[in-house]
Protein: Protein RER1
Amino acid sequence: MDAVEEPMSAFGAVTAQTNKLSRQYQALLDQSTPHTLYRWVGTGVLLVFFFARVFFAQGWYIVAYALGIYLLNLFLAFLQPKFDPSNEALDNDMEDGSLGSLPTKQDEEFRPFIRRLPEFKFWHAATRAITISFVCTWFEVFNVPVFWPVLVMYWIMLFVLTMRKQIQHMIKYRYVPFTVGKARYTKNSS
Structure:
């Protein structure tokens, strides 16, 4: 009977430790939420360490390429609206035959820009991916020999093409994913 209780208590102890670590990690994330600039500076420093590791070790180009593709995917999700106007236009076209768009007149409904991927989740996913990539550079199994200039050129082409498409989408549906602050109006402007 004691042998049966022992694995259950070991499992319970591991679960308790995992829950404790999870709560501590979430508390750290919650404390870092208002410090946007410091979070991104830390992520940038971590990215510099990763690229320095790849540069000085002269390897792990596949890991760097995969990280670049993943970060590009995150960035595109960060730029896109949660409710895509192109999808709504297609839905409206199928429902009543009229092509819907974002409000352009004073009497139309105001719709604020809501990101598909919020800034905090973007930061958290990017930091986690950079950390995992950095850890991967310490294992030889991930050091696949490739001709890295081809990967760099392919990533640049992919970046240019996807950003061109995203910018065209932003122009077509007239939305800007960034705000610099509250708009200030002078007395002379009307």
Remarks:
- Residues 35 and 174 are 30 Å apart (CA to CA).
- Residues 96-100 have pLDDT under 50 and may be disordered.
- The helical segments are 2-32, 36-57, 61-79, 85-96, 119-136, 148-172.
- The chain has six helices and no strands.
